[in-house]
Amino acid sequence: MKPIVFIDSKNSMSKEKIALCYDDEEEILEIIIDMKSYNFDIKKISDKDIKKGVEDFLNFSNRYFPEQRDENLSNILEQKPLIIKDYIMKAEEYWFGDNFAEINAFFSQNKDFWDKKIIFNIEADLDMNLYNTLQRKFGFIKDLKITVKGNSEPVSLAEYKETIRIIEQKVQEIKNYDLSPFEQIMYAYDIARDRLYALEDDDQKFKSRDLTAVLLGDKITCGGFVEIFNAILTKLGIKCACFSLKSVNSKRHARSIVYIDDDKYDIKGLYFFDPTFDCKKNDNNDMEYLNKYLYFAKTYQQMQRMDKGCFKTNDFVYFDENKIEELENNLKNKNHDLAMISDFENVHLSLINSLTDLNINVLDFVLEPMKFIAVLKDAATLANQKISLETFLRVLYEVRKRQYYANPTKYVFDMETIINIMHNSIFDKQTRKLLALFGEEDKVVTRVKKYMKDNNLDSGIERVKVTRLLKTIANNKES
């Protein structure tokens, strides 16, 4: 049997499609229901159709350099072929509405398809109502799988339901407390990093990166940590996204960028998180990971310094004020041309727009360059506002006291631990040693103690511990 190739071509049409893919004997191998607004006439496999189908995948520069269009199209087809004509012997398509009714009617009338592998390509959100709809309308299909946000591989309805259940359970744990957005983020961070890093075999790497696989399995790597963290934040209504870096030895690493809008702490900005580097290190009984937040809510500049050149990404280069100044000077000196637009090809401008209220439009680079520079500066400002020591300390206090009250064995809550956490979260080991030589480390301790005393956090810790002890005594009497 020949491999199945499904044509994956975007456009703006709001229709769904079903593709029936056959082998040489016209035996259906796979049925894909595509609901991501794709359009391509798979009955007509011609060069003209291929060009039409991949048009939306061409990069932005094509709009300015139309004479290169054929060359760019050729390059894309070589790098990421969307259609291999020899693999498709026959295909049929059907168009449906948005409510699954016609798709349900189609399968109800074609029972021969019920035992085939069927994939709903919908990139589903974690929505129990959607699960119930799919189960009610298509539960009779034996091998139905759907694509889900956070996964690279499709999953069964049962796996989809369990993914939703686990994430909703974690979200409800956070919602049980009256926490501000930044406090919710810290609570979610602790949940996401409460795993031991474990890599899957090379041929099944998705099992340690996909949301469903890491929630239901025992393998997890950087992508998995970020997917759990982001899934929880998304359900809490906090905007976030995953992005990828490349190490000096060309290995990929995943992190999260989060937009924090918290009136309680007067915070509004973009911050970077790396739950992988702050996760458990030795075994599942190791609780030392809870004593540091070294890669938590860092600015772009802070993360750059911490990486020490070990990781590179072009996604956010214009969070660097020096890079913006260089661009601005080039514009003022007219030392530029339209080819500079290609510099923005690898910059996540659309991602930044989706997370913030900014509207960074590459067209403004040509039409209103100074306006474009101004908005870039606004984005850089959002990405480089440091969280003060006092703010972080207050957030830690508010979150940890609730964690301690719920689980005093796991979450230690005393002055010594809080000071230790502040130490570990502000400075890495090498920096702490350097500061100790000049007596600067003691200044941090003094500053933490003073803030806690001035704001009655030290006495607050004791009150929480007494209240928790009384609850334990009461529970023991009941039992």
Explain how this protein is built.
The chain has 479 residues and is an alpha+beta fold. The protein has four domains: 16-163, no CATH class; 165-311, C8orf32 fold (Roll); 317-382; 388-479, no CATH class. The protein has 18 helices and ten strands. The strands form two sheets. The chain has a six-stranded mixed β-sheet. A four-stranded antiparallel β-sheet has the order 9-8-7-10. Strand 1 (16-22) and strand 2 (28-34) form a beta hairpin. Helix 10 (321-332) runs antiparallel to helix 13. The longest helix is centred in the last third of the chain and has 22 residues, at 457-478. The radius of gyration is 26 Å and the shape is globular.
Low-confidence stretches: 1-16, 37-62, 72-98
Order of helices and strands: EEHHEHEHEEHHHHEEEHEHHHHHHHHH
Tertiary shape: globular
Mean pLDDT: 78
**CA-to-CA gap between the ends?**
64 Å
The portion of residues assigned to helices is 40-55%
The number of distinct β-strands equals 10
| Tally of individual domains | 4
Helical stretch tally: 18
Secondary-structure content class: alpha+beta
Strand content: 5-15%
Largest sheet: 6 strands, mixed
Strands ordered across the widest β-sheet: 3-1-2-4-5-6
* Cα gyration radius (Å): 26 Å
Output the keywords.
disordered N terminus, C8orf32 fold, six-stranded mixed beta sheet, 479 residues, 4 domains, 10 strands, four-stranded antiparallel beta sheet, 18 helices, single chain, alpha+beta
Summarize, please.
With 479 residues, this protein is an alpha+beta fold.
